[in-house]
Amino acid sequence: MANQHTGGKWNVYDEQIKEILELNKGIEPIDVVKQINNDFDSSQRQEFSRYIRRNISRINDVNEGIYEACEDIKVDFTSAKNLWIKTKNKDGGGVSGFIVNPNYVAPVEEDKIIKEIDFLSIFKDKIQAVVLNQIENFKPTGLFDRLVYTDVHIGMDVNPDTFSLYGGVWDEKEIFKRLDIMIAHTIFHKKSNILHIDELGDFVDGWDGETTRKGHKLPQNMDNQGQFDVGLKFKIYLVEGVVNHFDKVICYDICEDNHAGAFGYIINSAFKAYIELKYPNNVTVTNQRKFIDHYFATPKHCFPLTHGKDSKSLKFGFKPILDKVQENKIDNYIKEYYLLQKGVKIEFGKGDSHQYITDNSTSKSFSYNNFPAFSPPSGWVQVNFQNSISGFVHYNYYDNGQKSINDHIF
Q: How are strands ordered across the β-sheet holding 144-149?
């Protein structure tokens, strides 16, 4: 998201980068970027430049430790003939040293080369691509549309002993009943030919009846296989429900959260493999594996996204009400990726809290958006908090910088 995730977005330029570095000894990464494409905006230039700096040793096929040693003493490794390495003896009895050639690359035997497997190629001969016809007589008034949903919790049992405080049902039938409503709502409120779909994590409830961190048992009404089948069907059904109404459908799926975690990534990876091959001209999928990542829908619209909690570190995560600590975290992220440019609107989005709260005024840099859960509250939430609302949010964005909000509460 601007990843379109950092390595995957820029590594297609590795050969060009290598050529430029070989022809221009000591050239700065930002100047490499300009030679490749001087039309990138400021944010793209900075991101690309960081990618080059972080990957320069790999791109030039040199030992990373030797490259960093040269960088520490301000020596260009491409022109260094020899490097004297000092090491302390383990017995403490003195110092040993040896000379290395920083540009030497050890030969690799052919049978030891691990060749990257293109996951999509497994399905290429098995999925027939579909060519969609343009919708006639539709005149877009919006710049792009955006659908945001989160916390589907497929497999969650909201009433395991029939005595939960507010009861409820969350099975496959109820999930797809709500999904039909979301598809119809999205089509009804369409104002453009481009639809962004953001899914903000906790898509399935957990693996083997536990969260990603283990030790937290969850009442579930589906096993792992059932969650996978329903989850994959959900993703495909959603896209196929809207794809005939838009020229482009662009999906962003968060795969770093506290319930779905790696299981969520597996489902989304299968979804990506299938749907991009079936609709190669109309649908793209980005599976977000970083805790926070972002994308630009246009050069003026930036969306940093997170679930709110991750799979291992954050027990409490981002709160529903923005405080100074959280504001500083988000501001640091914005500064790190040079997102705060003139005229750019930054809308930070999160799930996890199962609350629908939008804060447009606490921060001058960004808006802070909590999105409602797609699922009803679990039995635990019903007892510890309240019978919280559930729903999803749809937006239309316009050329004049305005947007309309078309939310739906179940």
A: 283-288, 248-254, 194-199, 144-149, 391-397, 403-409
The verdict on pTM exceeding 0.90 is no
Structure tokens at 389: 């609302």
Tell me which residue of 195, 284, 197, 298 sits closest to 247, measured CA to CA. 195
Interatomic CA distance for residues 283 and 402, integer angstroms: 26
Q: Using an 8 Å Cβ cutoff, are 354 and 390 in contact?
A: yes
**In contact, 158 and 169? CB cutoff 8 Å:** yes
Q: Give the list of residues 6+ apart from residue 4 with CB closer than 8 angstroms, or none.
A: 286, 295
CA 284 to chain centroid: 13
Which class does domain 144-409 fall in? alpha beta
Quote the strand ranges of 45-132, DSSP E. 83-88, 95-100
How far is the C-alpha of 108 from the C-alpha of 247, rounded, in Å? 46
Residue 344, pLDDT above cutoff 90: yes
> What is the location of CATH 3.60.21.10 in the chain?
144-409
Q: What tens digit of pLDDT does each residue of 24-53 get? A: 767 888 888 888 887 787 778 888 888 887
Check if the beta carbon of residue 209 is closer than 8 Å to that of residue 218. yes
CA dihedral 89, 95, 96, 98 (to 10 degrees): 130
Hey, how many other C-beta atoms are within 10 angstroms of the C-beta on 296? 17
Distance CA 2, CA 337 (A): 9
3-state secondary structure 66-84: HHHHHHHCCCCCCCCCCEE
Q: Where are the beta strands (DSSP E) in 90-235?
A: 95-100, 144-149, 194-199
